Amino acid sequence: MQNLRSILVFHPALWGLIVLQSLVVAAWIAIDQRISFSLNGGDDKFIVFAIAFFVGVIGYFFRASRWPVTAERARVMATGIIFLFLSFAGARFLNYLTMSLAFPMTDDLLDSWDRALGMDWHAYAFQLSQYPDILPYIKKAYKEAQVAIPLIFMGLVAFGKFERAKEFVTLLYIGVLLTVCVAGFFPADGAMARHMDVRFPEVFGPTAGVFFVETLKTVRESNDYVLSFAAVPGLAEFPSFHTAIALLIVYAFRDNIITLLLALGGGAGILLATPVYGGHYFVDVIAGSLLTFVLVIAYAAARTANLGLYWTAAREALPLKTRGSWETRPTEP
Predict the structure, then answer these.
(1) What does the alpha-carbon distance between residue 135 and residue 141 come to, in Å, rounded to a whole number?
(2) Does pTM surpass 0.70?
(3) Distance from C-alpha of 146 to C-alpha of 116, rounded to nearest angstrom
(4) Within 10 A of 5 (CB to CB), how many other CB atoms are there?
(5) What is the pLDDT of residue 42?
(6) Average pLDDT for residues 144-157, to the nearest whole number?
(7) Parallel, antiparallel, or unpaired for β 225-227 and 320-322?
(8) Residue 143: how many CB atoms within 10 A of its CB?
(9) What is the torsional sign of CA 234, 272, 249, 181?
(10) CA neighbor of 32 nearest in space, from 222, 159, 173
(11) What would the mean pLDDT of 252-256 be, rounded to a whole number?
């Protein structure tokens, strides 16, 4: 069993969850006559998948070669890329399928929760618009947040932080799966569409916070929608998954002051942008934060069955340069 876990990198239960997710998606498409599936639009993704598979196989068979460490890290990276591709593609399909159920729109409800908490979305957006110099930065941070996930995973693995890398991806996958399941009951056009001001498109851009609205409308109303691997926007409003990404990026670099500061900068940019560029209500951000905290606590509790591995993940940090040479903290044996 231990050898199987080593080959799979991630816990077999997570791979089983991906299989279950895929079966649900396939059964849903087979039953719902309004939905069909196409492989179009995924050429670049299939190429990356094929390369990762090839590297993973090569890395596995070359673990006993002259470069066992490099081969093993290449194998773990490749397996992780495959895991991310399968898990996030399935979650995106599930997101669209749940939105096709066309539950009543919840903008009134989400906005009322914001107001009950004393939060003024329009005032926040207007205040943010007064700082045009930071807008390109936070916009890029928001747009590239999901792109950063595989890069961070590979970076952690490159420095031998296998348990930290697996922790990062595991929390993200469970987080996105829970997000799309909950979000299906809370479809919304978003805060930007609700509080649109004629000045906002000029300051933030014409699609800021509303880039998904037409797609959501199409998914809810179409009687002939085709799911594919083409690049499409996420439709989850409540809770905010970008919030979870921002917090988990910071959490992944929690031990090293240098990388922690860099992660805090990126995470802060994502969080500042989420209400405006993501069109999220503040309650979406709060819900995304609570979801992340619960996942982190639950993950730590689940690891009590294997404290050695948990504390390895808890201790790991990227290397610190001291006394002119690269030194690392101890990792797992």
Answers:
(1) 10
(2) yes
(3) 31
(4) 11
(5) 61
(6) 94
(7) unpaired
(8) 14
(9) negative
(10) 222
(11) 91
Instruction: Please name the residues in contact with 44: beta carbons below 8 A apart, sequence gap of 6 or more.
Output: none
What's the length of the chain? 333
The β-bridge relationship of strands 325-327 and 225-227 is unpaired
Q: Which of 107, 129, 101 is nearest to 190 (CA)?
A: 107
- In the chain, helix, strand, coil percent, each to 5? 70, 5, 30
Reading the block at residue 212, the tokens are 């998904």
Distance between CA atoms of residues 291 and 68, nearest Å: 39
Q: What is the pLDDT of residues 43-77, one digit of tens each?
A: 566 566 667 666 666 666 665 566 777 778 888 88
Collect all residues with Cβ–Cβ distance below 8 Å to 252 and sequence separation of at least 6: 152, 156, 164, 167, 168, 263
The per-residue pLDDT for range 188-239, each reduced to its tens digit, is: 999 999 998 999 999 999 999 999 999 999 999 999 999 988 889 999 999 9
Note the pLDDT of residue 40. Answer: 78
- What is the distance between the alpha carbons of residues 237 and 189, in angstroms, rounded to a whole number? 8
Any idea what DSSP says for residue 303?
Answer: G
- What does the DSSP assignment read for 240-294? -HHHHHHHHHHHHT-S-HHHHHHHHHHHHHHHHHHHHHS---HHHHHHHHHHHHH
